[in-house]
Structures are given as C-alpha cells and as structure tokens.
Amino acid sequence: MASEVYSSLPMDTASKYIRLIELLPGREDEPISCIFHCSALGSPDLEYTALSYTWGDPESPKYEILINNHAFTIR
C-alpha cells in the first residue's frame, strides 16, 4: 500500500524536493482523503506545517485514509 502512494509521486532525489500532503474537504462519514504534492525547498510561495507521521504507540488503533486515491494506513 505505502509503496503505491509514494510511487504515484516520484521525486528527483538529486534535488531538494519534499512531498506535501493536502487534506481535502469531506464529510464526517467519508474516509479522510488527501493529495500528495511535490515542491522544491526554498520556493518563495511554499507554505506548509510540518507533521510527523511516526508518532504513537505501534499497538494503537490503525485507520485507513486515501492518498492520491490509494489506501494508506495511519495511527
């Protein structure tokens, strides 16, 4: 699952790019849906809030969200 999400937005590893995730609007009864964007570090119009995706107890409940229409498991 995770490899499909990352391979859907390949990056040039020789350059300083990061993947940004955009949370899409939705209803409470719908799965959380997001889109990956690739942006160059240092771009003047680049705005984001940093977020760790490795927090929490590994045994905590897991949830499935959609990133670029691919299922992705989070805690």
Automatic annotation (TrEMBL):
Protein name from the UniProt record: Heterokaryon incompatibility domain-containing protein
Origin species: Lepidopterella palustris CBS 459.81
